[in-house]
């Protein structure tokens, strides 16, 4: 079977940046066209294409979802994100130092555990023991190709997650009103819409950021010089709100080399850039991120390229997508992952333990990534 990445890469090589794939579908890899088409209001997401996809479960219909997206913004201002970082550090500090050291960890499991705890706490305004295992189960059952039997179990898992999220929304109404439910309820959305929105945020923030962190840890384990310098930065600045440019650059560079969301789909609602209405558009952050026309040494892990004044060319860096359906949590995700990474580096040396297999399925992930940890 052809690897899905090979198929896309060879199609891209045969075209000129906007490549016809047949049956009304185009692959867009030219950075400028990527920027124009993805940012266009006419490039819409088909949320019903794959009913089991986690983000297909946003509030009923795109209009409500876009209103929810606007209403969520107060939670993601710079001031609010910075204010949330001590809690992120506390969550990470409660988990990461417990990793066996010296010892070998399954990085996939551990990063999901810490990231999910951080995300749940951030969105709910308080910790939850119930939700992370429910999210994990639902996402595993959703998988890339659910069988009919799995679909039945998936529907049960989806109902269980929905009920647990709704309970969390009700708790927030009774409790201190510190999280996303309070922000949304305060703007007049009903309990069902808030439950669906929170559920979409929790599911989207479960595997994707954990995969990004796993890739960052893998790259640091194979680049001991960068690891040493990033640890020195993290150790010199223990305050969770401190600026950590190298640690942040490590996350950015890991997202460049290994964007977990490695392909994006959109449908054109109206003609654009010479393409007809109804065209299916495929974009690949992975291919754009490794384009030798826009990146120097594209296959190399070079966090220091992210200096303060570095701006990637338009359309050449899109780990969070672009345009109206860009990731709503890109800023908090980057800030939180930087804090979690710094927490790891302060307590553990990362040493390779076998080589992971890169997968290109729903996500671009490092399968069977294990690391040997040594105490700092
Ligand atoms: C490094 C971390 C993350 C990366 C790389 C990332 C990447 C992305 C990308 C590429 C999309 C667009 C997907 C598409 O259109 O098919 C997306 C959408 C989304 N992300 Fe993220 N994400 C991250 C973290 C998060 C977190 C922490 C949350 C929640 C707190 C979140 C919530 C969402 C939601 C709800 C959407 C759907 C937006 C919409 O359809 O309007 N993401 N993300």
From TrEMBL:
CDD domains: cytochrome_P450. Residues 41-60 are annotated as: Disordered. SUPFAM superfamilies: Cytochrome P450. It comes from the Bacteria. Belongs to the cytochrome P450 family. This is Cytochrome P450. It comes from Saccharothrix yanglingensis. The lineage of its organism: Bacteria, Bacillati, Actinomycetota, Actinomycetes, Pseudonocardiales.
